[in-house]
Structure formats: structure tokens, C-alpha cells
What we know:
Elements lengths: L18 H23 L1 H25 L10 H11 L7 H14 L14 H12 L1 H4 L2 E2 L13 E2 L2 H10 L4 H4 L6 H6 L11 H13 L6 H20 L7 H6 L3 H8 L10 H21 L6 H18 L19
Antiparallel strand pairs: 1-2
Amino acid sequence: MNQKLVVSPSPHVHGGDSVPRNMYGVIIALIPALAASLWYFGLGALIVSLTAVAACVLFEWIIQKYLMKTTPSISDGSAAVTGLLLAFNLPTNIPLGLIIIGAAVAIGIGKMTFGGLGNNPFNPALVGRVFLLISFPVQMTSWPVPVESRFQYLDASTGATPLSVIKEGVASGASVSDLMSEIPSYPNLFLGNMGGSAGEIAGIALVLGGLYMIWRKIITWHIPVSVLASVAVFTGILHLVDPETYVGPLFHLLTGGVLLGAFFMATDYVSSPMSRQGMLLYGIGIGVITVLIRVYGAYPEGVSFAILIMNGFTPLIDKYMKPKRFGEKVKTAKVQNTK
């Protein structure tokens, strides 16, 4: 017998996926939301997006080349995705210096400190966003008014977001039915005509991008559906209990960063669970924590904090909800002798 049977380690079949394919797929999925942000916020959205992407790519290249002494991998698109997601979590009138600081924290602390792509326990863009929110709360909570701020940047006219209107109004004793007159209509909320960050607007654009990623199998439906369903269920229960204190579920789904978080932030490959059951539990946890922060916390928005908290639980979820290994023996119960 001259032929030898060569057995190599798994995997034996390549699925065709690659990091660049998935990363550039995410960028394509973000294009509708980017176009919407440019339509509503114009010059500010363009400056913030370009600066965040360029800064993230530059910091990753510098760290890999001069600190880690490895070949830079900026062409895989992961740094560009982090930059876009960071930009989507920032006001479109934030100063350039703060964007660069946020990018440095996102890449330097959130990603490269742990070894780079594939090793980060937390979503890098959210690490940068939360750092800026805690360090520079005034600049991070100044929201340009859409449409009329298209040709303005630092001097853009600002206003309150729908979430902050409800939060502050209810705290001051106003009822939800009275406050809803100050909120844009639900069609306007869905189309994005409201105050907020670049990625908190245009729900229709975010949903289209999310469906594109599911269709391309870049992500699965488990995390987005569990996040959105849990937010809808728990806010619906609160609204039924006291409709004058708690706003309805549709409002919570269309405002803030729920849609962006569900489709683009919570689904980060590295910081989310691997099993389907784990993804569902992870998504429910994000939804519940988001509602708790929005309703009872100090901030009107809680998606970023909820995702980072559940990122920390991901290793525990993976440990106790991992799928059964192929070939593993099933534990059988002892059969009693009936004779």
C-alpha cells in the first residue's frame, strides 16, 4: 500500500467566510443609516464620521506597527467598522479633539490592549462612547436639531431628544399623554426626523441594514429579535400598569439606540455568546437592563451600558450554555432491576 490516509485537524471544510468579507458587509449594511444621518445632520455627520473612521484606522496602524511589532491589519475593515459605529454613537456637533480621544480609547483600550481583533471582551466602539459620556457629559448630551443644522457643525442649533423629553417631563410630574405632544409623530420617529446621535435616527435605515446582514448570514436573528422583543414586552407591561407614567413599547423601539444596538453593536462576534440559546439569553439581558436604566436610572438612555454589562457575562453564558460536543457520551440514568 503506497497511499497513506492523512487525517488533519478540523475544520475540514471552509465555509467561505473571512474577516474582510464580514467587516465590509457590515459597512455596506451601515450605508443606509449613514445616508440618513447625512440627510438630517449634513456637515456635522460627515465630519464626525470621517474623523472617527480615520482616527480608528490610524491608531490601529500605529499600535500594531510600533507597539505590538506586528504587520498592520487595517485592510480587514474592522477598524473602519469601529470608527463608523463610534461616529454613530456621538452627537454630530462634538469637537474633533473628543472624537480623536474616543477613537484612541476604543482602539487602544477597548481592542488592542487585549490583543486585537478576536480578543476584545467588550465592544470597542461602546468602550469609547461610554468613556466620552462619563468624561465629557455636556458635549456628549448636546444634540443638534435635524434638518436645520445641516450646514452647521460646532455652532449647530441643539434640542432635546425624545427620550430626554419623556425622562425629564415625567420626573417633573407631567403625564405621558401631555408630553407626547412635544414628541415627533411615530412616522417621523421611524424615518429619523428627531434629535439624537447619527445612529439613533432613521429606524427604517437601521432595520434595512440589519435585514441585509441577516440575509448575508453576517449575523443571525437571535440577538436582534431577543433584544427588541424583551424591550417591547417589558415596556409594554409597564405601560399597561400605568400609561400616564410609562410610555409605550413602540416609542422605546424607535427612539435612542435600541435598533442600532440590537443589529450592529450587540452582535459583535467576539463579545457576544456563541450558542443560539446563549444569544437569546444575552439579548433578553440587554433588553431588560436597557429598560431598567431608561425608566429608573439617571440616564435617559441605557443601551450602551446594557450591552457592555452583558459583554461581561458572555464568558459565563458560553460556559454554561455551550452546545454538546460531537461524540460526547450521553449520561444515562440507572435502570432499576424490576425482577
